[in-house]
Amino acid sequence: MHSIQVEPISIYCSTTIYQVISSLTHFITYKHHAMPIFFRETPEREEFLPHKSDGGKPPQFTDFEGKTSFGMSVFNLSNAIMGSGILGLSYAMANTGIILFLILLTSIAVLSSYSVHLLLRSAGVVGIRAYEQLGKRAFGHPGKILAAVVITMHNIGGKLEFWVNSNLISKVQLFLGEKTIICLSPEWFLNGNYLIIIVSIFIILPLALMRQLGYLGYTSGFSLTCMVFFLISVIYKKFNIPCPFDGFTNHTAENISIDGECEAKYFTINQQTAYTVPILAFAFVCHPEVLPIYTELRNPTKRRMQAIANVSILGMFVMYLLTAIFGYLTFYLNTEAELLHTYSKVDPLDTLILCVRLAVLVAVTLTVPVVLFPIRRALLQLLFPDKPFHWLRHISIALCLLFVVNLLVIFVPNIRDIFGIIGATSAPSLIFILPGLFYIRIVSTEPMNSRPKIQAACFTALGFIFMSMSLTFIALDWVYGENRSGGGH
After folding, report:
1. Residues 133-161: what's their mean pLDDT?
2. Is residue 26 part of a domain?
3. Which of 85, 116, 296, 322 is the most exposed place for a label (fewest CB within 10 A)?
4. What angle do CA 282, 286, 421 make, to 5 degrees?
5. How many folded domains does the chain comprise?
6. Which of 484, 230, 209 is nearest to 373 (CA)?
7. Rounded distance, CA 427 to CA 430, Å?
8. C-beta of residue 94 within 8 angstroms of C-beta of residue 252
9. Is residue 54 in some structural domain?
10. Are residues 406 and 197 in contact, defined by beta-carbon separation less than 8 angstroms?
């Protein structure tokens, strides 16, 4: 009788001990990720700003274990920054002068890096790595909708620059047609709109269906390589094209003497200067991609993600500056809104420039999947906030987004209107206004009169001032400007 009772007791004790050990193991593992900084083994492994939320629950960023390396993350973020906007920087320098352009470009780059800092701090306090959820935490459901709308408007609008490439396609087709007597090819081959649809289906769509952004690091690296080829070609052409060139009608310098036509200006203020700041601000916007990239980063910390942002912004700053300087010093006051169009006036069938056009086409094409990722995430946060991942939903949103982008690409207006309007609205919202407001509303541990909060408030006010001034200048240019296009597309 006694022996029969011992076995259940021993089993019960063993089970209880196992449960206690398992619970302690889980508790220790969990506390390792949630404990304050000074309990960590190394600074690099720390989670940034691990403050507790209002409910006393430590922040939990994500259950997803990031596997993307530092280099791949830099490629993805740099690719998100890079785009056809680089084609308009020489035109911006022609309308500001070298020194003023350098001041503006440096200021925008520094402010963009500081904006990423505010965004990461806000995300760290509440344990959220979704831009839309930060908006919800700061302003409730309207804030979530606002953040999603701004991200969607910016990224879809930014890909309207892909319209430039429909023209690039046509010119590459023209080159191939005259070189290889391609007149026997079907008519659709020479139609850029058809080719945009084909490229969207067979190149962009498969990449856009990637579940994780980290997988696009390889294509982002190739995209940046294409833009480096573009930069090298611009530098090379500076020493091969004489100035003045007889083929120019000199739209932008009707009242300038021949001697001044090939003279670099250090400070310039004219009617077209209004477009410069929006174009520059739009050139450094990468903020919708920051949190998704941070989520998939291996060994994620605030310092590590800030370093990725700084390296990406610095790399693009150097590329932007070199492109603008050598493009401007090639054509001076004859520089047009789209740099490659200016080269076409020298020799429409220049083999190198046509190869550069193809490289830019490939680069911007490979940028589209990267910027579609935060749009899809924003739509999922709005329409299916609590739903688990589902491939049908994932594919459907990608198809709808590409359909909308292609419609806008085919029927888009002047390229500079795109950069001007979108840069004057969504860019200051993503760089200045929203990160500053998020920081003020979310970081409750700091008083409003503290220096970080005052800096964030000034940062937000600067965004509103920048937006108002840019829209006003653009409207005045539309009303009174006689030469709005500047010879561009």
Report:
1. 83
2. no
3. 322
4. 25
5. 1
6. 209
7. 5
8. yes
9. no
10. yes
The CA distances from residue 61 to 41, 48, 58, 445, in Å, are 20, 11, 10, 19
Residue 205 CA: distances (Å) to CA of 227, 408, 425, 443:
22, 17, 28, 39
Q: Record the tokens describing residue 320, joined without a space.
A: 């932007």
Query: 292 lies in a domain?
Result: yes
Give the structural domain span for 300.
62-480
Q: Tell whether 224 is covered by a domain.
A: yes
- Output the pTM of the full model: 0.76
Q: Flag the least confident range among 149-153, 168-172, 219-223, 399-403.
A: 168-172
Distance CA 81, CA 286 (A): 5
What burial class does residue 126 get, using C-beta atoms within 10 Å of its C-beta: 0-12 exposed, 13-18 middle, 19+ buried?
buried
Between the alpha carbon of residue 406 and those of residues 87, 206, 363, 368, 401, the distances in Å are 21, 16, 17, 11, 9
CA–CA dist 219, 367 (Å, integer): 9
Strands (E), 33-72: none
Q: Please count the other Cβ atoms lying within 10 Å of the Cβ belonging to residue 70.
A: 15
At position 467, the amino acid (one-letter code) is: M
Q: Which of 91, 79, 104 is nearest to 158 (CA)?
A: 79
Task: For 327-375, give the DSSP string.
Answer: HHHHHGGG--SSHHHHHHHH-TT-HHHHHHHHHHHHHHHHHHHHHHHHH
CA distance 363 to 165: 10
- Of 312, 302, 294, give the one whose Cα is nearest residue 44: 302
Instruction: With beta carbons less than 8 A apart as the criterion, state whether 236 and 386 touch.
Output: no
pLDDT for res 305: 94
CATH number at residue 303: 1.20.1740.10
Residue with tokens 């709308």, as numbered in its chain: 149
- The residue whose two tokens read 């690296």 is 221
Lowest-confidence range among 141-150, 177-186, 275-284? 177-186
Q: What is the DSSP letter of 209?
A: T
Q: What tokens appear for 110 in the block?
A: 């520094």
Cα 19 off chain centre by: 49
Q: Assess contact for 424 and 474: CB atoms under 8 A.
A: yes
List, in sequence order, the alpha helices (H) in 98-216: 98-126, 131-158, 162-180, 192-199, 205-208
pLDDT the model gives residue 316? 95
Cis peptide before 36 (omega within 30 of 0): no
